[in-house]
Design a protein that fits this description.
heterodimer, A: alpha+beta, Gyrase A, domain 2, 9-stranded mixed sheet, 4-stranded antiparallel sheet, 20 helices, 18 strands, globular, B: alpha+beta, Alpha-Beta Plaits
Chain lengths: ~600, ~300
């Protein structure tokens, strides 16, 4: 026993660690089961009471792939050719002819469209600067500029899509850049195809909206607060008679008396016209604002809009800002011709410069002239990205926006402003959707077959190898536990091929034990004692297990590298499984046998 | 319980007969591949695929005429599991998801009193299809190369060659059988999709696993019985590992049969390919991988005798 103490501690720790990582998955399942059994108001209160637990467990559980829970996966690609066309000035017949040729070539070519365009121009001996940048620029300059623009277009596309997806409110959306020109969007649980398509396609709407006077915005919010308090506080007379100064109230008391201001916090000194809302309360506030009786309290030309990004407040919590703006936009983003984020050399501050066309400049001069010292919000698809103060009347159309905290914030604003000037032409190149019912069927079939296969294997092992088989079965359980725990710890996603990978892992784990036991039987046949036979069996089987598992692992690695989506899920579980099975099928079983034979050799029997 | 006692089968003695079996299996498979070919899935072809579930059973011919009315005439239409579930696939491409939209609205007008739900919809652009095809090729070639290098490094070069030839054999036989069986068994969808590529790579992994275990025993026995002829060492090793080979392959076979029957429509093709794969993988470890080592040793010996 003493000899194995360290090993036992190691095994115990790994099991505890595995359980620790798997607990959120179990809790999440439990909470959802409870939630499903409740209806109407009960379920709403349940969600409110357990909000934190639901959110946290959801984040840490094993995620299910789109094939198991239903949802959509869309791959968007920037249409670089369209971009090249949009960017060109003085388009003439020669340009149209070149573009047509390049469009044909691009269908089959692997080369970048910019390169194809350049070649086409060079064959015709036309300088690219006739259409792009200034005449003095060389073809190299132009090609570099065009490549830069297509990279920026993808960033713009991602920002537009992210902004819209965030507003759409799917849980756990994933938006990733793939290679140079593609965006993968995964929306688990999304089923409404038309909505999603609108979400991802179409150009972004950029608008400039005047912020409402802060006194007015505050009064509107105050009315909302009072109406809500009156509705909920009819029975609590005490609250009305409460004479305690508001500053002395505990947050709970304050929230009770002010249902709206309790979650939408106002800073009366610095920014009375805007409210700060914790990320977790955003939906709640939006619900209040959407209520019909509340809508009637809001003036017709006032609109509440959210900030697109969160700020990090105290305790690392994320905070959204709620603004009140004039519903009719002052100007739309189509007039912007360019935007650029730079560092202001004289103050060493990040700034964004913005240029407008003639028509826009005239309007802009009028708007800024009439609203000096007021704030104008830059709104894309109904989210506010910045709300700078107008310092002076801007004539000539060149504006400068200051006050960004860092260059990243400035870059984001550049992207947003450009979305008005130059839409990122994206198109759907891949689209997969799985209905929730197919997902359910798949889960059922996957779990049923996994369970049945495991059961058959377990029974067979006990029949064939007696005690040895029992120990191997125990190792199988550990192996399964470890695979799932590692998957949860690395926030991996379980897909249907992933389940297949786990089933195969179990086969590999059984194989390791079969190899060892056959060896032990052979060694016993040569007349060795059981203890000696076990030692020899493990030792001699080791190279075979190691080499065969490593080759399988290599296949898994390559699959993970070259495969995509479902295949990667399979490869991942296979690799995790091989590592876990080596630990459980070799290490754990050995410790168990050593402990069993120490007590009395007669308890162990390999059939 | 013991299924096998000590065996002394002369595996390598009958290897020439088995070459014939393997050769004709591959031959038939190749002929089928040339004539019948395999169905490439939507992943590799590009196009639009949609699976719908109707409330009541529908006739394929009715669905086809509905599609003809829409002008989607190259469509492939088949049942997917039950006769209420229909899979439609067309190579037609359109901007975004217009083809899928057209199919859905067409079905809704043609079957007004038989509502359906969309179980699955895939649209793959032609460029993406070509890329996935290329990636799959890379994955297969890269894993074969990596396996050959690893086995050659751990054993001897000829063992690496033997292992990889055995893998080619397994892939060809399985591909041939898939080509032959495709369309013959109702409810079994055997097109080459990304999942199917994963199945092939898994069978490669399982087959090489089996081969390595045998090679490991040969390596060990060669050290113990230094004066024994290689053919005898190999025969001895094959007999010693036979029990393990049958038990392990048998267990995996059992698991796959379960997956084949209960694993659901989506996993069925995958399980079928692996079931064939585990049979040929077990067989090829003996009659291809080990046999090649024997042939090579015999040739080397003949050469040595000639020089003497």
């Amino acid at each position: 026993m003493r000899k194995n103490r360290n090993k036992l501690i190691l095994i115990g720790l790994s099991v505890l660690l595995a359980l620790y990582f798997l607990y959120p998955t179990y809790r999440d399942y439990q909470l959802h089961k409870q939630l499903r059994s409740l209806t109407g108001a009960d379920s709403l209160t349940f969600v409110e009471q357990n909000e934190k637990a639901i959110r946290e467990n959801r984040m840490k559980r094993i995620k299910l792939g789109l094939d198991l829970q239903g949802g959509m996966r869309v791959v968007l690609e920037v249409n670089v050719l369209k971009l090249l066309e949009d960017l060109a000035k003085n388009r003439d017949d020669a340009f149209t002819a070149v573009l047509k040729q390049v469009r044909e070539e691009a269908k089959t070519s692997e080369e970048s469209p910019v390169l194809l365009l350049r070649r086409a121009f060079e064959v015709r001996q036309i300088r690219m600067s006739r259409y792009y940048l200034a005449l003095r620029n060389t073809n190299d300059d132009v090609a570099k500029y065009l490549e830069d623009e297509s990279v920026k277009a993808i960033d713009r596309g991602i920002e537009i899509v992210r902004n819209r997806v965030d507003q759409y409110g799917v849980s756990e959306p994933s938006i990733q850049k793939l290679g140079g020109t593609r965006i993968i969007v995964e929306l688990p649980g999304a089923t409404n195809e038309n909505e999603v398509r609108q979400l991802l396609q179409g150009t972004a709407l950029l608008e400039f909206k005047l912020l409402k006077d802060s006194d007015l915005s505050y009064r509107v919010m105050e009315t909302i607060d009072k109406t809500l308090a009156a509705a909920s506080g009819k029975d609590s007379v005490a609250a009305k008679k409460d004479t305690t100064a508001e500053a002395d109230m505990t947050p709970e008391e304050f929230a009770k008396k002010h249902p709206f201001f309790g979650i939408a916090i106002i800073d009366p000194q610095n920014a009375p016209g805007e409210a700060f809302v914790l990320e977790e309360n955003k939906l709640k506030v939006q619900h209040i604002l959407d209520r019909e009786d509340i809508q009637q309290l809001i003036p017709r030309d006032l609109q509440f809009l959210w900030s697109a990004k969160t700020r990090t407040g105290g305790e690392g919590k994320k905070i959204f800002t709620l603004y009140a703006v004039k519903a009719t936009p002052e100007l739309t983003g189509g007039v912007i011709t360019n935007a650029r984020a730079t560092i202001d050399p004289s103050f060493n501050q990040p700034i964004v410069t913005m240029e407008m066309n003639n028509e826009g400049s005239r309007e802009w001069a009028r708007i800024t002239g009439a609203n000096i010292n007021k704030r104008i919000a830059i709104v894309m698809d109904n989210s506010i990205f910045s709300a700078p103060v107008v310092r002076s009347k801007i004539t000539g159309g060149n504006s400068q926006i200051e006050g960004m905290e860092n260059i990243d914030e400035a870059r984001l604003l550049e992207i947003v402003l450009k979305a008005g000037a130059l839409p990122a032409p994206v198109e759907i190149v891949e689209h997969r959707s799985v209905g929730p019912s197919l997902g359910e069927d798949s889960i059922r079939a996957g779990l049923l077959s996994a369970g049945l296969a495991t059961l058959l294997t377990v029974i067979f092992m006990v029949l064939y190898y007696h005690t040895g088989g029992g120990v191997a079965d125990l190792a199988l359980v550990f192996c399964l536990l470890f695979v799932l725990a590692v998957l949860a710890a690395f926030q991996g996603t379980l897909t249907l091929p992933g389940i297949a990978g786990i089933i195969l892992t179990l086969a590999v784990a059984v194989d390791a034990n079969v190899l060892i036991y056959e060896r032990i039987r052979e060694e016993t046949a040569t007349g060795k004692t059981l203890r000696a036979a076990i030692d020899a069996g493990y030792e001699k089987a080791w190279t075979a297990i190691f080499d065969s598992n490593l080759t399988t692992f290599i296949t898994g690695l390559i699959l993970f590298q070259f495969g995509s989506g479902p295949v990667q899920g399979f490869a991942l579980t296979l690799m995790i499984g091989i590592a876990a099975s080596m630990f459980s099928a070799i290490f754990i079983t050995r410790v168990i046998f050593e402990m069993l034979t120490e007590k009395s050799a007669a308890t162990v029997n390999f059939g | 319980m013991r299924l096998f006692g000590k065996t002394t089968i002369d595996f390598m003695g009958k290897r020439k007969l088995w070459y014939l079996v393997s050769g004709s299996l591959i031959g038939i498979g190749l002929i089928s591949l040339l004539i019948k070919g395999v169905d490439l899935g939507i992943d590799f072809l590009g196009g639009t695929e949609i699976v719908v579930k109707f409330e009541k059973a529908v006739q394929i011919s009715d669905v086809r005429s509905a599609m003809d009315k829409l002008g989607i005439n190259q469509a492939e239409i088949k049942t997917f599991g039950s006769d209420r579930e229909i899979l439609l696939r067309t190579p037609q491409q359109g901007e975004g998801t217009v083809v899928g939209d057209r199919i859905r609205s067409g079905l809704a007008t043609s079957f007004p009193d038989n509502p359906f739900t969309v179980l699955k919809e895939d649209k793959i652009g032609p460029k993406v299809g070509a890329e996935l095809r290329r990636d799959a090729m890379y994955a297969v070639v890269a894993s074969l190369l990596a396996i050959m290098l690893y086995v050659a490094f751990r054993f001897k070069f000829i063992y690496g060659v033997g292992a990889v030839v055995a893998l080619f054999h397994d892939v060809l036989v399985t591909l041939g059988i898939i080509s032959l069986a495709n369309g013959l068994i109702p409810g079994l969808n055997l097109e080459i999709s990304q999942n199917m590529i994963a199945a092939f790579l898994t069978l490669v992994g399982l087959s090489v696993n089996d081969t390595v275990v045998i090679f490991d025993r040969i390596r060990e026995n060669q050290k113990i019985f230094r004066s024994m002829k290689l053919v005898e060492v190999i025969n001895k090793s094959l007999n010693e590992t036979l029990s393990r080979t049958i038990i392990t392959s048998g267990t995996i076979f059992l698991v796959l049969i379960v997956l084949l029957i209960f694993g659901g429509e989506v996993n069925r093709g995958f399980a079928f390919a692996l079931t064939i794969g585990i049979i040929t993988g077990t067989y090829s470890s003996i009659y291809i991988a080990s046999a090649i080592v024997v042939e090579w040793a015999n040739r080397a010996q003949r050469k040595a005798e000639l020089i003497d």
